[in-house]
Amino acid sequence: MRLFLVALQFLTRLPVRLARFEPGWLNDCVRHFPLVGALVGAVGAAVLLGASQLWPAWIAAVLALAATVALTGGFHEDGLADTFDALGGVVPRDKALAIMKDSRIGSYGALALGLSLLLRAALLAVLATRPVLGAVAALLAGHAFARAAAVGVMVGLPYGGDVDHAKAKPLALAVAPRNLGIALGWCGLLALTLAACGVPPPRLLLALAAALLVAWAMRQWLKRRLGGYTGDGLGATEQLTEIAVLLAFTASL
Which sequence spans correspond to the domains of the chain? Predict the structure, then answer.
């Protein structure tokens, strides 16, 4: 529970208060990132389903997207923009890392962020017209699997930036493989629960495959360009995986 609360405090704007804090907890709390993701997805699903009873699907989709962004403070969106600003062009590693630290947004980042928001809003609008179970499953799985993908990248790569200047230094240290195992366990439990509720297993398998593919692609990209992951790279991983999972749930099979 303590590590879950640390993960909740780190990934969301919820007012979580802890009596004390140890840096090592931040490193180990990544095992519960998918559980926090499921919570964020549940909030998005509640807003999507509630708003779709009052307004057209596209309005409900934008409201649901706004709710999840507000809940996380645009944490992952910021990482997506910074990553594409840094890696969208052809620049050396040191220059790319410097661009990531720049608070200003450039053309590549603006395009990536705009297209991401537009595509997610469109996908949520499609889900708003689908049966309730499908919409809830897509949002829960999308947010949970996406955060597990980020954990996978952390375990599969060393830190690619300057550890001494990392914003969350404990996350720049080696993440134990057991934390990835527990994160995947949360995803497996969620998938089994959704299947028991009636979500078709092929749809869940497609979503899992999409998440694994994005995690692998991001690992390769970050390794080639930076030699490892950064916090912004993890944010980009979460965003792209979330989109991939939503695409899997809305695809015509």
Answer: 44-250
Rounded distance between C-alpha atoms, residue 94 and residue 162, angstroms? 10
Question: Are the C-beta atoms of 144 and 31 separated by less than 8 Å?
Answer: no
- Return per-residue pLDDT of the chain as tens, 253 residues: 899 999 999 999 999 888 887 778 888 999 999 999 999 999 999 999 999 999 999 999 999 999 999 999 999 999 999 999 999 988 999 999 999 988 899 999 999 999 999 999 999 999 999 999 999 999 999 999 999 999 999 999 999 877 655 665 666 677 889 999 999 999 999 999 999 999 999 999 999 999 999 999 999 999 999 999 999 999 999 999 999 999 999 998 7
CA distance 202 to 238: 22
Residue environment code for 16-28, b if the CB has 16+ CB neighbours within 10 A, otherwise e: eeeeeeeeebbbb
| Element housing 162 (H / E) | none
Structure tokens at 148: 């597990």
- Report how far Cα 84 is from the mean position of its chain's Cα atoms: 16
Q: Hey, is 159 helix, strand or coil?
A: strand
Between CA 34 and CA 182 the distance in angstroms is 9
Is the distance from CB of 222 to CB of 153 less than 8 angstroms?
Answer: yes
Can you tell me whether residue 134 is helix, strand or coil?
helix
